[in-house]
Amino acid sequence: MGAIRVLIVDDSMFFRAAIARALTADPGIVVVGEAYDPYDARDKILELEPDLMTLDIEMPYMNGVEFLKVLLPQWPIPVITVSSALHREQEAMQAGSQDFLGKPGDRSPDGMQEFSAELRRRIYVLAERNLDKHYRVVEPPMSMAEIAAGAGLAFDGFIALGASTGGTQSTAKILKALPKDMPGFVVVQHMQPDFTRMYAENLDRDCAMEIREARDGDFIDRGLVLIAPGGSRQCEVVRSGGRFRISLYPGEKVKGHCPSVDVLFNSVAKITNGRNAVGVILTGMGADGAHGLLQMRRKGCFTVGQDAKTSVVYGMPKEAYDLGAVCRQAALDDIAAILLRHVSR
Fold it and tell me: What is the radius of gyration, based on Cα positions, of the chain?
């Protein structure tokens, strides 16, 4: 993703200048223009084609909420509303704004610095959320020649994957695209007891890798996908000599789940050297897995999160991304190729 091109729309000269200073302080953001009212903004959007827009509400001729209702059906640009009219936040969001940030009441240097940092953070989050023609770099599929050359042989480790709502289909799509010689997977998918065994059996028929429900003590081997059984046991990865194996044990729910993605990822973070494990978090409701993935990334692991556009529920991957736990956020169709290339290095 290149620099994020932002248009600032605000009738206040003070805040246009303040926002411009805040954004130009970050080399990853470029202010392509400033507009003082909605009509000026309309002309500059057509001329400059910004990636994202900050928008005030209280402006002459047409307020920001009315402008959103007119603009977005014709030009669906991501918008952060930046306004002192806090009571109109819900209106702005219903009109299509994707985020709302209140202008600071404290205009001291410290107050403005805090506002500036928060605005920059939200711009990055919003840009990643809107992986469209401006942001998305499509990962080309691996060629048959690359696969035949022994993809996966360079990586002596395993991949830990967590998912919830919508994850059964997402995980299946990734696994079906991968060759037989991939590093082993351990998967925690929020699922009812007994369903994980049938899910694994169905996947095993459609995938090149061997897929089965995990048993306590199973080793994570190349070409093998182990799916943690649903029910009352937590799933961890532990070291056994120079190898990794599964530990299943009775445990309380964590983040409302047993097995829990956080428990899996935290266990990986404790034993990894950063180069022998990869973490993947897919679609799902809630926050399970986000903190565990952050621990993996802090240990040096490569981590991947599913993007908003292709998630059934952008909950778990969003929480992970917002924490800074995700090295690479990607569309579902790109994740298999991203993993394959990473383990082939």
Answer: 23
Rounded CA gap, 340 and 338, in Å?
6
- d(CA 195, CA 328) in angstroms, rounded, equals 30
In the residue annotation, 232 being an active-site residue is answered as: no
What's the whole-number mean pLDDT along residues 168-180? 92
Q: Which of 88, 38, 97, 85 is nearest to 62 (CA)?
A: 38
Other C-beta atoms closer than 10 Å to the C-beta of 32 total 17
Catalytic residue among 10, 51, 97, 190: 190
Q: Which of 10, 218, 288, 307 is catalytic?
A: 288
What integer is the mean pLDDT of 300-321? Answer: 91
List, in sequence order, every residue forming a beta bridge with 213; answer none if it has no partner: 227
- The catalytic position among 164, 170, 267, 311 is 164
Residue 259 preceded by cis peptide, ω within 30: yes
Q: Is 190 noted as a catalytic residue in this protein?
A: yes
Q: Which long-range contacts (CB under 8 A, 24 or more apart) does 45-48 make?
A: 45/7, 45/71, 45/75, 45/77, 46/75, 48/5, 48/7
Is 342 a catalytic site residue?
no
242 burial via Cβ count (<10 Å: 0-12, 13-18, 19+): exposed
Question: Contact at 8 Å (CB) between 77 and 50?
Answer: yes
* pLDDT tens for each residue of 7-57: 999 999 999 999 999 999 888 899 999 999 888 888 888 888 898 999 999
Which residue reads 């799509």 in tokens? 173
Per-residue DSSP letters for 197-212? HHHHHHHHHH-SSEEE
- E strand or H helix at 244, and its extent? strand 243-250
